[in-house]
Amino acid sequence: MIDGRSMVLQLEARRAAGAPRGDLLSGAVQLVEAAEDTYDWVGIYLLQGYDLVLHDYVGAATEHTRIAVGQGVCGTAVAEDRDINVPDVRAIENYIACSVGTVSELVVLIRSPATGKVVGQLDLDSDRPAAFGERDEIELKIVADWLGGLF
Ligand code: SME
């Protein structure tokens, strides 16, 4: 079961050992993906200007390595400055399909604690409907908040 605090402790140890930010972001992707069988694709996009740029991911390769703010679930989360949990992506018009198998998606924003501004996001896809619940949102926010502190 996903445990945000335990992941943060592991990441914190790696930071103390000198791991650079890029490695910590990639490590977070790997830890999150391994946490639940229902997480079929996990990635981190970083905000660069008006684009979200894929930093790293675990799961099927995607051609959507750059997503404009406002586009898809990922870009909408930034445009509307909120996390988005989509139980069934087939019901969404503004959806960018990365994998034909994806049915539900969760985007958790990563914010700089200094400014509160969005610097990126954790993006999770699942092949199951409504795979993400309140617990996933809470635990992933713990991870996202820690990652925000790297910026
Ligand atoms: N589905 C996302 C695009 C990213 S992929 O899921 C990896 C979206 O609609 O923004």
At the first level of CATH, what is the class? Answer: Alpha Beta
Rounded average pLDDT:
97
CATH names the topology as Beta-Lactamase
Number of helical elements:
4
> Could you state the order of secondary-structure elements as H and E?
HHEEEHEEEH
Architecture in CATH?
A: 2-Layer Sandwich
Radius of gyration: 14 Å
Which ligands, by name, code or SMILES, are bound? methionine sulfoxide
Give the overall shape.
Answer: globular
Q: How far is the first residue's CA from the last residue's CA?
A: 28 Å
Helix fraction by DSSP (H/I, runs of at least 4): 25-40%
Q: Please report which band the strand proportion falls in: under 5%, 5-15%, 15-25%, 25-35%, 35-45% or over 45%.
A: 25-35%
Numbering strands along the chain, what is their spatial order in the largest sheet? 3-2-1-6-5-4
Number of strands: 6
Largest sheet at a glance?
6 strands, antiparallel
Structural class by helix and strand composition: alpha+beta
CATH homologous superfamily title: GAF domain
Low-pLDDT runs of 5+ residues are: none
* Number of structural units classed as domains: 1
